[in-house]
Amino acid sequence: MTIISPSILSADFANLERDIKAVETADWLHIDVMDGHFVPNITIGVPVVKSIKKVTKLPLDVHLMIENPEKYVEAFALAGADIITFHFEAVKDVKKIIDLIKSFNIKAGMSIKPKTSPDEVLEYLKYLDLLLVMTVEPGFGGQSFMHDCAQKIPLIKEYAPKDLIIQVDGGINADTARICTELGANSLVAGNYIYNSVNIKSAINSLRSLSAS
Ligand code: DX5
Ligand code: ZN
Question: What is the pTM of this model?
Answer without folding.
Answer: 0.98
